[in-house]
Amino acid sequence: MALVIVERTFETPIDFEALHALQDRGAWCLDLHKITFLCTYLSIDRRRMVCVYEAPDAEAVRTAQRQLGIPFDRAWTGTRLP
């Protein structure tokens, strides 16, 4: 499994609770693509967000995000450094 980082930017501050609810409703889609949500980082101004997933590859995460209608700028694989 790969570590996949998803970057998001918003023109106006995001309502994190609404985005979280959408992700909760889309849990079936993450399961379908064998994706595990790990964590989210939200900027203080709520206009930038980074989400971290464990998945087969970045394309699986991109596909799930599109199917769920969750906006994102880019998704890429990474390595956790000690």
Structure report:
The chain is α+β, with helices and mostly antiparallel strands and 82 residues long. It has one domain: Alpha-Beta Plaits (2-Layer Sandwich). It has 3 helices and 4 strands. Strands 2-3-1-4 form a 4-stranded antiparallel beta sheet, covered by helices on one side. A hairpin with a 5-residue loop joins strand 2 (36-42) and strand 3.
Which properties best describe this structure?
Alpha-Beta Plaits, alpha+beta, 82 residues, globular
Summarize the structure.
With 82 residues, the protein is of the alpha+beta class.
Q: Strand order, main sheet: write it out.
A: 2-3-1-4
Helix content estimate: 25-40%
Terminal CA distance: 18 Å
Number of strands: 4
Largest sheet: 4 strands, antiparallel
CATH class: Alpha Beta
> In terms of structural class, how would the helical and strand content be classed?
alpha+beta
What low-confidence regions span 5 or more consecutive residues with pLDDT below 50? none
What CATH architecture would you give?
2-Layer Sandwich
Taking all Cα atoms into account, the compactness measure Rg is: 12 Å
The SSE order reads EHHEEHE
Shape: globular
Q: Looking at CATH, which topology would you report?
A: Alpha-Beta Plaits
| Number of helices in the DSSP assignment | 3
- Strand content of the residues, in percent? 25-35%
Any idea how many domains?
A: 1
Write the layout of secondary structure elements.
Layout: E1 2-9, H1 16-25, H2 27-32, E2 36-42, E3 48-55, H3 58-68, E4 74-78
Antiparallel strand pairs: 1-3, 1-4, 2-3
